From TrEMBL:
Oligomer and partners: Homodimer. The monomeric form is inactive while the homodimer is active.
Domain Peptidase M28 per the UniProt entry, residue ranges: 202-394
Keyword check for Acetylation: no
Protein name according to UniProt: Carboxypeptidase Q
Main location: endoplasmic reticulum
Length: 552
């Protein structure tokens, strides 16, 4: 039986702080009280056989058991992962009509017990979810869409049904029971409440006295031993803290390094607390955030899944090419991985670090996981010391360190907003193509073009010595506060969107559905599109004014 104690996490946080002091790095340990859900044990019983299971954090506590008829619905997700709340993405066309089949029953399907799947099952009236993991091991996880400690508005989204994961062998047996029309009983043992947790934070002051800083961060709470997720990340940040502290007199901008608890048991509650408590400082002064999760794992020699916002891609590309000799392939950030700063508006890069090449993963017969460099020890008891690789870790430390240094040392912060205007233009073309004549995005596209032109003018003015580096840096920082929320959030600034990944310019994604709506629904959809488009146009205009003010 799994037993997790909140004090274990605090011991780890204090150990990090002690190590920092030994290295001569001053550290502040904050001790906020955050809301956590701690899974202890679970089982599934069907036809007299009890199967081993694990509950994700935030599953409903159901020690007495929840019984219901099993309904098996095959997953259509090739990777068995989804951060998107989309029934058709999970189950194909059958997903559009599953509600009638699942009411009062237990959903059995392949994958992980993730938030989007849990939210869908609840909407359909299911009384439980059993996720069949792809291999012999069962992976820990989380199943809530709530980001961080809930506020009053979030509480209605707390999962109200038990959710568990089983391994493939158990899942195959349970599929057989479902095909016979049999029922199953899910039992979960959870611990939920308010816990004081340690948050170690290092501030290494730069010399420019601007107050600007780069935030480097990662979580230290782990499942079981958790070497690849995320002890290697914690070690990376410790080493970077040591190096920067020893060379602090040479830093232009400041660096803040933070280690989070509550990553899995609080759905990023540690970083969310920090984003809330230090929101005004982050808003005024943070240049960018860099997330450090799962670097330095064995066989993880590729950078073909590098998480990065568009405006940071030139910086990240130059670093990875220089250190690793590879040209990275970028992916848009998921709504995951301690990206708790999107609503404030921080340009961001990295999440998971290096990963296994696809051919190596295929050769080993591994399925896709969300950490440990692609090693399927992720979130299991097998994530022990052999998952780390010293040579890979050294290279990843160099990548993180050089990335931070280029942010701190450059006269002009290397944030290239014209990369984002190019992305916006492509996104709008996609939405226009999807809705056809039903809605006109031409004014929005003109707003993107006008912003891009203003940015080009600013670059030219700076190159000609007509605008100072201080003015350009202010523009680049202030643009993030407008454009990052516009591209990654639906909620307002200083709140937190649900843990469900958004498409680009998410306010406009209704355009993708308009053509499939009947006349009544299309009217409602067009109303939503009009309101959303007004916001986007206004935000683009506000961004352009930030640039034009520097040119005046």
């Amino acid at each position: 039986m799994h037993r997790w104690k909140p004090d274990d996490v605090n011991l780890a946080g204090d150990l990090i702080a002690d190590r920092l002091r030994e290295l001569g790095v001053p550290v502040t340990v904050h001790r906020p009280t955050i809301y956590l859900s701690v899974p202890h044990d679970a089982s599934v019983t069907a036809a007299g056989t009890t199967y081993r299971a694990k509950p994700p954090s935030s599953s409903a506590n159901c020690p007495e058991g929840m019984t219901g008829e099993l309904v098996y619905v095959p997953s259509q997700k090739a990777s068995l992962r989804s951060y998107t709340k989309n029934a058709v993405a999970f189950f194909g066309e059958e997903g559009a009509t599953l509600g009638a089949r699942l009411k009062g029953r237990i959903l059995l399907t392949e994958g992980f017990g993730n938030p989007a799947l849990t939210a869908l099952a609840e909407e359909w009236g299911a009384v439980g979810v059993i996720a069949i993991n792809p291999g012999v091991d069962i992976h820990w996880g989380t199943c809530t869409t709530i980001w961080g400690t809930p506020d009053l508005d979030d509480l209605p989204r707390k999962p109200k049904i038990p959710v568990v994961s089983v391994n493939k062998e158990s899942g195959t047996a349970l599929i057989s029971e479902a095909e016979k029309g049999n029922a199953a009983t899910i039992k979960t043992v959870m611990e939920e409440g308010w816990f004081e947790q340690a948050v170690p934070v290092v501030d290494i002051a730069g010399t420019d006295e601007s107050g600007d800083f780069v935030l480097l961060h990662g979580h230290y709470d782990s499942w079981d031993v958790g070497v690849g997720d995320n002890a290697t990340g914690d070690a990376t940040m410790l080493e970077i803290a040591r190096i920067l502290q020893a060379n602090r007199g040479d830093l232009r901008r400041s660096v803040r390094i933070a280690w989070w608890p509550g990553h899995s048991t609080g759905r990023y509650a540690g970083s969310t607390w920090f984003a809330d408590y230090f929101a005004q400082d982050l808003d005024r002064n943070c240049v960018a955030q860099v997330n450090c999760d799962s670097p330095g794992c064995r066989w993880a020699t590729s950078y073909h899944q590098t998480t990065c916002m568009a405006e940071m891609q030139p910086l990240v590309k130059s670093v990875i090419e220089e250190v690793a000799g590879q040209t990275p392939i970028f992916k848009r950030p998921n709504q995951a991985g301690d990206y708790s700063f999107n609503n404030i508006g921080l340009s961001s890069f990295y999440m998971l670090s290096s990963t296994m090449p696809d051919d190596v993963r295929a050769e080993k017969g591994y399925y896709a996981v969300s950490g440990c460099g692609g090693n399927i020890a992720w979130h299991t008891e097998n994530d022990t010391l052999e998952i780390a690789d010293k040579d890979v870790l050294m290279r990843d430390i160099q990548i993180y360190l050089l990335s931070v240094l280029r942010l701190t040392q450059a006269e002009v912060v290397p944030v290239e907003w014209r990369m984002l205007t190019a992305e916006f233009a492509e996104t709008l073309k996609g939405y226009q193509a999807a809705c056809g004549h039903l809605f006109d995005f031409s004014e929005t596209a003109e707003g993107v073009t006008a912003l891009d032109t203003a940015l080009a003018d600013l670059d030219a003015a700076f190159a000609a010595g007509k605008v100072s580096s201080e003015a350009v840096n202010t523009v680049r920082r202030d643009l993030a506060r407008v454009l990052v929320p516009l591209n990654y959030t639906r909620a307002t600034r200083f709140r937190h969107d649900p843990a469900i990944t958004c498409p680009p310019l998410p306010m406009l994604d209704v355009a993708s559905d308009l053509a499939a709506m009947d006349d009544d629904m299309q009217g409602f959809g067009l109303t939503q599109a009009l309101r959303a488009n007004n916001r986007v146009i206004a935000d683009l205009r506000a961004a352009r004014k930030i640039v034009e003010a520097a040119l005046a």
